[in-house]
Amino acid sequence: MKTYTNTGSKDTRSGFGDGLTELGKTNENVVALCADLIGSLKMDEFKANHPERFFQVGIAEANMISLAAGMTIGGKIPFTGTFANFSTGRVYDQIRQSVAYSDKNVKICASHAGLTLGEDGATHQILEDIGLMKMLPGMTVINTCDYNQTKAATIAIAEHHGPVYLRFGRPKVANFTEANQKFEIGKALHLVDGTDVTIVATGHLVWEALEAAKVLNEKGISAEVINIHTIKPLDDEAIIKSVTKTGCIVTAEEHNFLGGLGESVARVLAINKPTPQEFVATNDTFGESGTPEQLMEKYGLNSNAIVKAVETVIKRK
Amino acid sequence: MSNTQQLKDLTTQVRRDILRMVHKVNSGHPGGSLGCAEFFVSLYSDILDRKEGFDMDGIGEDLFFLSNGHISPVYYSVLARSGYFPVKELSTFRLINSRLQGHPTTHDNLPGIRIASGSLGQGMSVALGAAQTKKLNNDSHLIYSLHGDGELQEGQNWEAIMYAAGNKVDNIISTIDLNGQQIDGSTDTVLPMGSIKGKFEAFGWTVVEINEGNDIDAILKGMAEAKSKTGKGKPVCVLLKTVMGNGVDFMMHTHAWHGKAPNDEQLANGLVQNPETLGDY
Q1: What angle do CA B115, A94, A283 make, to 5 degrees?
Q2: A97 shares its domain with A201
Q3: A70–B107: do the CB atoms touch at under 8 Å?
Q4: pLDDT per residue over A267-314, tens digit each?
Q5: Which CATH number goes with the domain that contains A229?
Q6: C-alpha distance from B13 to closest chain A C-alpha (Å)
Q7: Which fold has domain B4-272?
Q8: Does residue A179 lie within any of the structural domains?
Q9: Do the strands A249-256 and A197-201 form a parallel or antiparallel pair, or are they unpaired?
Q10: Is the ipTM of this complex over 0.90?
Q11: Residues of chain A positioned with their CB less than 8 A from the CB of B166
Q12: Tell me: the pLDDT tens digits for A50-98?
């Protein structure tokens, strides 16, 4: 089976920061806004290179989102940066009316998503943001898996006209996708070929899915692993094609099972090809303080949890 | 530059449009619309430096943003009568498949509208964003915006008001419609806001007051004064004192007509007080 190598763990937010730095040099219409989290979002370099195109709005996320909507009028492409919780739940109505309904070319870039934010606890660990964003008509929703992919996605979304939610995280995680890859919005990435089960993962769970596939392989189970970086629009075809071969599926995400990737996949399959499915996701709960590893273990979001889910779903075939 | 009589005639016609639009669908917001009729007419006939036609980016022209989107009847009437779309389209207000939605939207590509509004408190931020893009584009034209006084109860306004002064956004003129009314009663009974002038000044804005906000000459004079204060490192606020329901006697000085349409008899009464000047749609 095909295996992937961690070329050195890095945080996905640094992929965002480095992508933004590159965009600053190549696209003069790109502007950036931040709500008092420049260091956390790795926006320092863009700010230093282009102070005239960088807007520190202070701790005022609602103002930031609506400012960004206004900045598009006249041709700018605003990238907003704050934590995922403050990028979505706190400003849902601003995104809904001024960005999504008004079809404004705003890129909402959200770090520290999910449990892996760690010790800050549940107030900051949003597990509902994918659902909030994917429900908005016209919104593109992307959750990248590593540094390289996050950098590529950041660069790619500047070329896409329309509102985008780009979700990434805080901790250093395995960096295993190609450097300088071309990022295609809405296109699933086939990572490992398999015949017994399909594992569809997004964000930090993609690496866990690869680790799970190795364990499963040793147990004689051939798992197909697909990296779904774009949750909306979803690559229906890739999912249907894979389960046609494998006959069962596990979805894996750092998000509540309500409203996440798993539900989007379930809808596609219910309509096109009803298939047994298990969900690796949080179970309608808030998070808590702890290290990322402890939390992912406790809430069942690591490779062990994926292996278990696979063993369950295969029995349901 | 239009003469004042032409603007008065247009205002009378706009009042008729407002009354007929909300009456037809038995919904909509006539009170605030009537109170701002003179302001909208002055803005689109005289104050804004506008280009022919409509382009979303609006480079090289002044832009206007309506934050209190519920006064869409006056906005639509003045946009239509300023040539953005056919006047006869006013008859589709709030009907199924219309571009004239209950609250303004870009969703159906209605010329003249650059952002959806209706959920209150967002328009100041949007206008400031557009103002900053004007600066980035080295475009010396101005951004104008309108907000309700009750709308200032939304906290996002104060984020924006603080931001504007802190960042010296001095190419914006934000007008507050001080009619003293909101849905549940007078602003003083619903949530007393103290001195709005004092608050804007404390936040670092230049404030211009127009005490006769339903008098076209006073509006033109006050807005010219406001314009003269732009470009000096501070955002400019205009406090426009208006009478809700102005020009229709039984709708004046009350919140009762905030979001209520006149019946047949009331419509006839309102129209008699505002005889046709430029032709009904």
Answers
A1: 140
A2: no
A3: no
A4: 999 999 999 999 999 999 999 999 999 999 999 999 999 999 999 999
A5: 3.40.50.920
A6: 30
A7: Rossmann fold (3.40.50)
A8: no
A9: parallel
A10: yes
A11: 58
A12: 999 999 999 999 999 999 999 999 999 999 999 999 999 999 999 999 9
